[in-house]
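Good morning,

Attaching, inline, the backbone tokens for the sequence recovery test we're adding to the shared suite. The designed sequence is right after.
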């Protein structure tokens, strides 16, 4: 798959796209034996790219995207966004997985990646990855209901207690914010249903240190280098 020269260099871990663009324009990069000053030049692994005389390669093109998923059926949404990702990423989208889109109730932040290590980390209870859901109900919740959820709910074979539970605003009676660990999401749904409050919509507004800031509904963006490092190497996010 061909990609812009500055993006190719950035994916090799040599710096940001903007930093690589400056190096290219300064004549420090060669492509197939010739100095290349156009950062938009399309290159791939079949091309010989050198920076300061040293060969540059990208072993596997890993990508990390953050999606602000609209409400909707899981299958329809994944088909739609898979088509958009294929257009954006080409063949690299083939083994991409949606992390956090495993229930049709869920909308909001979803991570899309082809990195198997990241997918495994998000499935590991010991990773300590936290999420915040803004949950909307058809009925109002009393202060006693919220206190009961804070104390925890006994389910058939385990006990669930969220990290925190608060009203979305002091005036909102049918919408709450719940913080919990990512792997506990099914337990939260089961607890609410046991209490007699099946959620109408669960909007993930915080996911492993990532937020919706600057990301409209239905859009996705690349994670920054700092965000990628954080989710790859740190626990208790």
């Amino acid at each position: 798959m061909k990609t812009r020269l500055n993006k190719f260099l950035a994916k090799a871990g040599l710096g940001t796209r903007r930093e690589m663009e400056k190096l290219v324009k300064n004549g420090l990069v060669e492509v197939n034996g010739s100095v290349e000053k156009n950062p938009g030049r399309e290159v791939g692994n079949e091309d010989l790219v050198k920076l300061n005389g040293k060969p540059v390669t990208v072993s596997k093109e890993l990508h990390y995207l953050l999606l602000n998923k609209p409400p909707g059926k899981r299958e329809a949404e994944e088909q739609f966004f898979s088509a958009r990702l294929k257009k954006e990423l080409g063949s690299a989208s083939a083994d991409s997985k949606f992390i956090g889109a495993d229930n049709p109730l869920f909308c909001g932040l979803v991570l899309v990646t082809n990195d198997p290590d990241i997918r495994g980390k998000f499935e590991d209870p010991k990773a300590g990855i936290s999420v915040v859901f803004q949950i909307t109900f058809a009925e109002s919740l009393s202060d006693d209901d919220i206190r009961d959820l804070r104390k925890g709910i006994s389910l058939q074979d385990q006990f669930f207690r969220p990290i925190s539970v608060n009203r979305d605003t002091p005036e909102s009676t049918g919408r709450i914010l719940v913080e919990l660990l990512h792997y506990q999401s099914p337990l939260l749904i089961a607890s609410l249903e046991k209490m007699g409050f099946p959620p109408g919509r669960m909007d993930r507004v915080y996911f492993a240190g990532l937020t919706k800031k600057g990301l409209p509904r239905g859009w996705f963006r690349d994670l920054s280098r700092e965000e990628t490092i954080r989710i790859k190497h740190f626990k208790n996010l």
